[in-house]
Amino acid sequence: MSALDAKLAAALSSREQRQIRRRLPDPTSSSDSSSLIDFSSNDYLSFSSSPMLRDRFLSVLSEAPDILGSGGSRLLVNGQAHNQLEVRLAHFFGSPTALLFNSGFDANAGFFACIPQQEDVVVYDEYIHASVHDGVRASRAKNAQFSFSHNCIISLRKLLLRLIDERPSLVDGTCSLFLAVESLYSMDGTFAPLAEIVELFDRYFPRGNAHLVVDEAHATGIYGPQGRGRVAQLGLEDKVLARLHTFGKALAATGAVLLTNVLIRDYLLNYARPLIYTTSLSNANIIAASCSFDMLENGVAHNVTNHHRL
Ligand SMILES: Cc1ncc(COP(=O)(O)O)c(C=O)c1O
């Protein structure tokens, strides 16, 4: 066994002993939909097996001018379908602009790696998704990354007051604070106290240099009017710097959209490496996501969620 093999095997064996070794599930169990009830996937609206969505997708696909591939990075080939979906989603979610990413992971990793600047501070809920951690770790806000207890407004308030006390630049507004939360945490089914966070910001950061970033991955399609998420449900669109909606969970597609302002979008197009150095979503993928948004807009998703709540 080579030295590398020995080290990798030892790490895996350690995970095995701690009962945290990861393995791919049996692929046959996920396709046997007739005999099993799905309590584990993120296909919250059962869109992946919806005959209505499937028919719509196949029909749009058969009429579309381009369906295969995308030809390269968005910066090289900016397909009409991609562009149209962004315009549509900005309007649907009530945001100045929208920017597609290949996944929610890429969007979080890209945003947090490049938007916080050298003197800035990043605060996040202790349960925040791994993609935010990866982004923050790569960011220039090297020694200014802090977590607070899950959904605990008291813990957050304490942390913010401490940071304000220690950093005059947060008080005079010359540096910024970014706060990353998920609107709905999937592990425990808990909602972030978004309205209370906004109140804290208004109270302690009157210069407007505290920015809320909300990951709506698990709320997309389920909460808010037409499934537009918790931020929309609470009417906080103008209080949030960026919102992330992913297509891979309730929408049964792949990809994600980041809703934000014109300047941040432009900056991401110039600096977000997971966006710049990758082939964009295929046209078929864009069509699939688009068809799922049709289901949100035409009320089908709403009927499904209401039925489940009965
Ligand atoms: C809260 C949250 N954010 C982001 C992601 C990543 O999204 P995607 O699956 O589109 O990469 C996930 C998915 O695991 C998630 O649960």
Automatic annotation (TrEMBL):
GO biological process, one term: biotin biosynthetic process
Composition bias type Basic and acidic residues, residue spans: 16-25
Domain Aminotransferase class I/classII large positions: 36-290
Pfam families: Aminotran_1_2
Keyword presence, Manganese: no
Positions of the UniProt region annotated as Disordered: 16-35
Name the UniProt record assigns to this protein: PLP-dependent transferase
